[in-house]
Amino acid sequence: MPENVSILQLLGPVVLALAAVLWVMGLVRLLRRSRPRTAPWQADPRLSGLPHQRQTAPALEAVELTPAERDAFAGLVRQLGDGR
């Protein structure tokens, strides 16, 4: 035990740590007590606040490339592939 530290200064961190542990335990008990037993969304799996989703995918779009654009794209792919 250091000479220049009083017993109260040594007990301070211990008391604060004990208070923090007790506070966390009380908070956990309070949150567990207020938690509902069954979640209300388990009764109805559909979310009524969301709009109805489409069952099919949107139509695919395609654009024809010119030969110059195809060559430029192929050059870009080769350039990016060489970095690996």
Description:
The protein is an all-alpha fold. 52% of the residues lie in helices and 0% in strands. It has helices spanning 7-34, 67-82. The protein is elongated.
Indicate the proportion of strand residues: under 5%
- Described by the principal axes of the CA atoms, the overall outline is elongated
Helix fraction, binned, reads 40-55%
From the helix content, strand content and strand pairing, which structural class follows? mainly alpha
Number of strands: 0
Q: How many helices?
A: 2
> What are the secondary-structure elements, in order, as H or E?
HH
> Biggest sheet, open or closed, and with what strands and sense?
none
Determine the mean pLDDT: 83
Keywords:
elongated; mainly alpha; single chain; 84 residues; 2 helices
Write the layout of secondary structure elements.
Blueprint: H1 7-34, H2 67-82
Task: Summarize the structure in short.
With 84 residues, the chain is an all-alpha fold. Helix content is 52%, strand content 0%.
